[in-house]
Amino acid sequence: MSQTPLVEMIGIEKHFGGVRAVDHVSLDLQPGEVVGVLGHNGAGKSCLMRILAGAMIPSAGEIRINGTAVTFDDPNDARAAGIETIYQTLALADHLDAPANLFLGRELKTRFGNLDDARMLEESRKVLARLNPNFKNLTDPVSSLSGGQRQVIAIARAIYFDTKVLIMDEPTAALGPSETAMVADLIRQLQAEGIGILLVSHDMHDVFDLCNRVVVMNKGRLVGAHGIDEVSKDDVLSLIVKGELPADWSARNLEAVQ
Amino acid sequence: MSQAIKPASKRASTPLASVMPDAAKIHRLSALLTLLMLIAGFSLASQAFFSVNNALTILLQTSVIGLLGIGMTLVIITGGIDLSVGSVLALSGVGTAMAVKAGVPVGLAMGLGVAIGAACGAVNGLVVTRAKIPPFVATLGMMLMARGLALQLTGAAPISQLGEAFGRLGNGALFRMVEMQPNGFPKVIFPGIPYPAILLLVVAVGATYLLRRRSIGRHIYATGSNEEAARLSGVRVNQTKLYAYVMSGALAGLAGNVLMSRLVTAQPSEGVMYELDAIAAAVIGGASLSGGVGTVSGTMIGAFIIGILRNGLNMAGVSAFIQQIVIGAVVIGAVWIDQMRNRR
């Protein structure tokens, strides 16, 4: 791993009054790597992801992208650096249609600065077709779409632009089995393209299926960062619940190495 | 949402899915139908109602509600409300009149009046976005402050004798044709299109363009639809809201100039409760007080429904008190229809 990491988060802290939501956490991500971020609700993983997405300003710590220190004051800064986020809530404006949501905040415009709705519709059609060939309701408000279709719009928005880092917060929570498989395929495809992915998930199966590494947070602190081959599901569960590996882990791991 | 229980994959083929986006249009169509029925009803009830002169009177009366309503629509779409427009209207009119009295040319003074309105709107916007005060409270405060300032500046007395030029905006008309009769009295062949009506049309077209074709318009809808989502998508929601309040204030200032010019007198106590007419116009026209929904064309229909109700009830000799009851019922009815639509 002599390569410069795509993302380095160093000593990140976030305090709310006396509460340390994120307590001196460091994390890095290589190009083409999928890192699972696990932990209980309230363990601080969403906070950490929001900080990287520019939606939250850290109390302390440094973020480096390709080795260069950056500061994100709002989500636009993070997006400009190639960091896209798929939020668990999907962050869609219900009254707008799919193209309007896809291009929200970075609308395509004509020469006179007017909205270029025709081109946005065409581009949306292309990127949505790649994710779901059956997607047809492009001019309906997204409130009238199914959970899966809404998820597809949120994913499309994250991969359409020049993405280098993708943060996925529970991307399959609202999906059925076939759509979940589609997302898994997509993650592998993006990984092959050299995009770094942070996958926040509760689904142990997905994590072990897709991730190269896992990091586990507990009460705001990073309690474990392991290659996916070094740990079992029980080990990870122990990290999530107790904040530490099982007592016999190092012994077992030594045996495995020998 | 009875279709929601069907499997997701079948959603695309449900008939309701293709009808849903037209619900807003249906609402506007029903408002338009109401408008036409009102016109027909009042025409039958009173001979004088259906005449060119009365139509122009209605245009004139509605232009003030219309201007306020357009600004209100922008604010309501962002999920806010502006209760200060009636007072800001008075303060702007008073400001213009005082400038005219001080010797400032009328055009420039009116520009100043609009700027005063925009400044009030900017204060509203900043209080809402920076101090995080709910719009209802923030603009209620501005409603009191602007009214108080207008009364304080004038000693609660109207400013009159403002000259002919001051009255031109409110009383002038385009294509007015007058013929001198042999007996020395002028005969009006065509009363002309009142300037306030032309102004309203220009503002309505401009605001529609803004909402439909510019990114600020899209951001206004997105902010009202889901503020957090808009923020995470990179929309500068605070600037977007500020923009809406400034526009509402500026249009209130413009409406104030139109109204005071029509009276050729600046009345610091003018425009009380006008904010309610503006809100009613927007809501009757299909704007949703929970944000994300509303159109300028709908608000125009709403403004004319209120204008024609007022005018027609007056013509039919219905007392002002009964008029309030009727308009109140219409507003509740419009919101009820809106809720039925959303519940479906």
UniProtKB/TrEMBL annotation, chain A:
Record-linked PROSITE patterns: ABC_TRANSPORTER_1, ABC_TRANSPORTER_2
Keyword Repeat assigned: yes
GO terms, molecular function: ATP binding; ATP hydrolysis activity
Residue ranges of domain ABC transporter in the record: 7-244
Highest taxon of source: Bacteria
Pfam families, A to Z: ABC_tran
Keywords tagged on the record: ATP-binding, Nucleotide-binding, Repeat, Sugar transport, Transport
Name of this protein: Monosaccharide ABC transporter ATP-binding protein (CUT2 family)
Organism: Tritonibacter scottomollicae (Epibacterium scottomollicae)
TrEMBL record, chain B:
Keyword entries, A-Z: Cell membrane, Membrane, Transmembrane, Transmembrane helix
Record-linked CDD domains: TM_PBP1_transp_AraH_like
One Gene Ontology CC term in the entry: plasma membrane
Transmembrane segments: 55-76, 106-129, 136-159, 193-211, 242-259, 279-309, 316-337
Annotated Pfam families: BPD_transp_2
Location of this chain's protein in the cell: Cell membrane
Chief location of this protein within or outside the cell: membrane
GO terms of molecular function: transmembrane transporter activity
InterPro entries: ABC_transp_permease
Membrane topology term: Multi-pass membrane protein
Protein's recorded name: ABC transporter permease
